[in-house]
Write a structure and sequence with these properties.
The chain has six helices and eleven strands. It has helices at residues 19-27, 30-37, 42-63, 126-129, 136-140, 148-163; strands spanning 7-13, 72-74, 80-82, 93-99, 102-108, 114-119, 174-180, 183-188, 196-202, 207-213, 224-225.
């Protein structure tokens, strides 16, 4: 079994996938189990459990490796990858993000990928938080203005998950420029950072998402699957 060309993206609504919480215990490794146990709030723990079980299921259907048999490794900054020992090349790259009862899972046959989602919430004071991650020029590159800061956050998060740096890198060192409708490029303001291409997505429930790659052409034909995953 092989990954289809390009990027595959799946949006998972956790309310439709409670059954995945039951599979998590038999599929997850010690690292995933420990992270789940560290959550104090049930809703946050459930988001983690369902999102990671969904990731294993999506990858299993791509690679032919059983969900509970897949082995993950992690870089020094925490970026996960699949151990290639038990599968034929190419080993797919992937990125997972979850927020407010939803997960976005993006896989790629050969190219690195980063993804992030965030729910628009009234208790997030984005103008107050903006100096921690954005510049005025970043927000001006994105429309509509009402959600520009939220969009800026998911674009930068996706880019930093692509590189594997996460928030070990100051997001203010990434500059966002528009390259078309919902298409953006991100470049480092401190040098030594490759150009990143990203696409912004919005859903009616108030969810914002971004997918980032090093190759702009991979963003042109993404069809995000929203149908519920099925057991088996």
């Amino acid at each position: 079994m092989s990954h289809p060309p390009g990027l595959r993206a799946v949006l998972v609504r956790h309310a439709d996938h409670g059954w995945l919480a039951d599979r998590f215990g038999s599929w997850a490794d010690a690292h995933e189990q420990a992270r789940a146990a560290a959550f104090h709030h049930h809703a946050h723990r459930q988001d983690h459990v369902i999102s990671h079980a969904a990731l294993r299921l999506v990858l299993a259907r791509t690679t032919g490796v059983a969900p509970g048999s897949m082995v993950f490794g992690h870089s020094a900054t925490g970026k996960p990858w699949i151990d290639p020992a038990d599968m034929a090349p190419p080993v797919p790259a992937f990125s997972l993000s979850h927020s407010a009862g939803h997960s976005l899972i993006v896989t790629s046959a050969r190219e690195a990928v980063g993804a992030d989602i965030e729910m628009q919430r009234s208790d997030h004071d984005w103008p107050r938080l903006a100096p921690l991650f954005a510049s005025p020029a970043d927000a001006c590159a994105i429309s509509p203005a009402a959600t520009a800061l939220l969009a800026c956050w998911v674009l930068k998060e996706a880019a930093l998950k692509l590189t594997g740096e996460g928030l070990s890198r100051d997001p203010r060192t990434l500059a966002i420029t528009s390259s078309g409708t919902d298409r953006f490029s991100l470049q480092g303001t401190d040098g030594g950072f490759p150009e990143i291409h990203a696409r912004l997505f919005r859903w009616p429930v108030g969810l914002h998402g971004a997918i980032a790659t090093f190759k702009a052409e991979l963003l042109e034909a993404i069809d995000i699957e929203c149908a519920p995953l099925r057991p088996g």
